[in-house]
Write a structure and sequence with these properties.
The chain has 454 residues and is an alpha/beta fold. It has helices at 16-26, 55-60, 99-112, 242-250, 301-321, 326-329, 331-354, 359-367, 373-382, 386-394, 403-424, 433-451, and strands at residues 2-12, 32-35, 51-53, 70-80, 87-97, 116-118, 122-129, 132-140, 145-156, 183-192, 202-206, 216-221, 226-234, 260-270, 279-280, 283-285. It has three domains: 2-47 and 101-176 and 276-329, 3-Layer(bba) Sandwich (FAD/NAD(P)-binding domain); 72-96 and 180-270, 2-Layer Sandwich (D-Amino Acid Oxidase, Chain A, domain 2); 345-449, no CATH class. Strand 15 (279-280) and strand 16 form a beta hairpin. The structure holds flavin-adenine dinucleotide.
């Protein structure tokens, strides 16, 4: 039997993006249905590194994690060279979350604002008609029936699966396909160690083309003896299996002797620029479904929240105005790009560049502090490499052993600057998107020619 219900917004996916969006729209008095395939009690569970910077909470007006949501308080990240002898310490406060407790808090904030939750329920497909998504066909796991939910705005927050987005007509801007080379295939375990962790307030990122080609492996302490340890490897043909690499190069280390496994799991993170538009007609994609994770390190909790916040602002205005269209929802793109997307595109080029460097070159960058600790912080928070590199060229003496690397970095810095500026000139009007995209492709083309990336 199929029955039908109507809402201002329907959200598919109760991860951080879907939960935060639902709450923000519902608290303005609009009706929101949230469809999540997990049962209520498991909402929030996610295979993740669980690290988030403190900065997002203030920016988004979201209460900072506290109590059982926090498993570790972070003071910074140690980035370790492939030789494991040299490192850079990047300062920055944050949290090692208990993901489930954090998700449950976001869920309760959403439910208390009136969001109607269809948990244990599976979104099967979008219902398309009259140039828009009129509704979503779901299997309501609580009653065992298929049901159509009709919505003025439809939001895909289903993570990397993009369960609605991937079933839309190919000429809709949001249905852009994900290239497997632009993902990180990740595996992580949570373990209790038999020894105390040194510097438990610092996350560790190990750069190693041997262990984690095209990515890195991490050691994120959750207090004094518990750790989230894993690795992410670039997707695509010819890359090794992360579980095998983990067993061979990470778990064999002394520190894991007699440790106890608490949880193991894998996942995929998009590591590229965001979708060219998060919006089409009355449809919006947010979070991993819109490729919002940071291309450099795959962190996507904070940027998923930013995309949800941007989409909620646009949705509230459009629902208040009573006109739902690409044009009225367009500010989702503008807000997201200004707050994260422009930097994300710039870091996408840096990510592709780093993926081509050898162990020797990565070690040299860290050993010689070609990019210093403060500069690394600056790059990861703004996407600006330019000033850093220009200063280095003036005092190039110390890099004479590898002048070609410095020249490559100079070219990279200029392209990162170019792509970021291009994002800052993102069109005001949707009709100008095609022209903007053409220029974006030219900048990527220039990058690929200069660095032999295909
Ligand atoms: C191994 C790993 C380590 C990571 N480490 C970090 C880190 O340390 N810090 C960080 O910031 N980010 C990290 N990330 C990335 C981060 O976890 C994601 O970017 C973020 O959780 C995305 O949130 P989301 O809400 O967009 O998607 P998700 O959290 O994936 O939520 C999507 C939801 O949609 C639901 N869903 C899917 N299909 C359907 C359907 N058909 N019907 C109904 N519901 C459906 C799912 O059950 C899920 O609850 C990591 C990711 C991985 C895989």
């Amino acid at each position: 039997m199929i029955s039908s219900e109507k809402f201002d917004a329907i959200v598919v996916g109760g991860g951080v993006a879907g939960l935060f969006y639902s709450r923000l729209v519902a608290e303005k008095g609009f009706s929101v249905a949230l469809v999540e395939m997990k049962p209520l009690k498991k909402i929030g569970e996610k295979v993740c590194g669980d690290a988030i910077s403190r900065e997002y909470f203030k920016k988004l007006g979201l209460k900072e994690p506290s109590g059982d949501e926090v498993e570790g308080v972070v003071k910074g990240i140690r980035v370790i060279a492939p030789d494991e002898k040299h490192s850079l310490l990047v300062k920055g406060e944050g949290f090692e979350l208990n993901r489930k407790a954090f998700g449950q808090r976001l869920l309760h904030e959403a439910l208390s604002r009136g969001v109607l939750l269809y948990d244990n329920s599976y979104a099967k497909r979008p219902i398309i008609g009259n140039g828009k998504v009129e509704g979503v066909l779901i299997h309501d796991g609580r009653t065992g029936v298929n049901r159509v939910l009709e919505g003025k705005i439809i939001v895909d927050a289903s993570g990397i699966a993009g369960v609605l987005r991937n079933k839309l007509p190919s000429n809709w801007w949001v249905s852009e396909k994900l290239d497997y080379k632009d993902v990180s295939v990740a595996y992580r375990e949570i373990r209790v160690l038999s020894t105390k962790i040194e510097e438990p307030e610092y996350l560790r990122i190990y750069l190693s083309p041997l262990i984690a080609p095209g990515g890195y492996w991490w050691f994120f302490p959750k207090g004094k003896s518990k750790v989230n340890v894993g690795l992410g490897i670039q997707g695509g043909m010819g890359y090794p299996n992360p579980v095998e690499q983990f067993g061979k190069y990470i778990l064999t280390r002394d520190i894991f002797k007699n440790s106890k496994l608490i949880h193991a799991g894998g996942g995929i993170v998009p590591t590229r620029r965001p979708l060219k538009s998060l919006v089409y007609s009355n449809f919006i994609a947010i979070g991993d479904a819109a490729f919002t994770a940071n291309p450099l390190h795959g962190g996507g909790i904070g940027s998923s929240l930013i995309s949800a916040w941007a989409a909620a602002k646009a949705s509230i205005d459009a629902l208040s105005e009573g006109v739902i269209s690409t044009k009225t929802l367009w500010k989702t793109n503008k807000i997201y790009i200004m707050n994260y997307g422009a930097k994300q595109a710039s870091l996408d080029l840096l990510r592709m560049f780093l993926q081509k460097l050898s162990e020797e070159e990565l070690t040299l960058i860290i050993k010689k502090k070609i990019v210093s600790e403060d500069e690394l912080l600056e790059i990861s928070s703004t996407g600006d490499l330019r000033a850093t590199i220009m200063n280095k060229i003036i005092s190039a003496i110390k890099f004479l052993s590898k002048p070609s690397l410095l020249l490559k970095l100079k070219t990279l810095a200029s392209l990162m600057d170019k792509v970021k500026k291009h994002y800052y000139s993102y069109p005001e009007d949707p009709k100008d998107l095609a022209k903007w995209e053409l220029r974006l492709k030219e900048i990527y083309g220039e990058f690929k020619i200069k660095f032999g990336y295909c």
